[in-house]
Write the structure tokens for this entry.
Amino acid sequence: MTLSAQSLTPSFDLSLAPLPGTTARLFSPPRLPLAPPDLLMTVPTYNEAENIPGLLERLTAQGAVVGVLIVDDRSPDGTGEAVKSFQKAHAAHVYLLERLDNRGRGPAGIDGYLQALHMGAPLIGEMDADGSHAPEDLPGLLKALTSGVDGVIGSRLVPGGREEGRTLARRLLTRAANLYIRALLGLPYRDTTSGYRIFRRELLREIPWTDLISRGPSLLQEILLIIHKNGHRLAESPITFRDRVLGESTLNRRILLDSLRIVLAFREKYGAVRGKEGEK
């Protein structure tokens, strides 16, 4: 049985959230599963038209309880249109947040979380669209979300985690960046640079979204630091990280260096985790 977007239970809000500084449009599918999703995965995108159809197929195959919110910066390659085509062809919780301005990885990540919070899913996650994060790892992440755990990081750097298709230099860079971030901020997590995560909505509501300073990929570390200093604890679940196969990455050396530099600003603004608080 399917329902129209207009008739979905009121506990799941399909209206556009207030997004400070951003003009956006929300596109919902014409047909939806009967029940609202338990988990809404946000996926920031820019020029991912080649990857999106396969990613949506694999995510929705994880069950009707899994929803997807694509957060697209009006990609010129037709990413948004690929999402809309999928919506028309499938009765699934697949939504498109099309951002018309305020572009960038940091603002897109923030707007995705704000929209997901507004919609009301009890669990909210994030993952990349380039194929590096496997939807098939979601059951493992959810299994790690046990009592007393407020969120889960999909980690390459815990036992059972691994990387495929990456050069030795890239693997070493990932480890060096994590050592640097952990040393400066005192975070206990091994893979602080992982963008594959699931959080309980309650802890995300505590984040001062309009006061965050990151504008790029370093948003991942800023969120982790705030969550940890608020007293929440996260688990790490092993994943297999695969290097991008289709499309081109927007990550370059300048973005990477800026992300490492801004960690110093995080330390100045929030302070580092100290003592037992930083132990794991």
Notes: The chain has eight helices and twelve strands. The chain has one domain: 18-270. Helices lie at 52-60, 79-89, 105-119, 138-144, 168-185, 201-204, 219-229, 253-270. The radius of gyration is 18 Å.
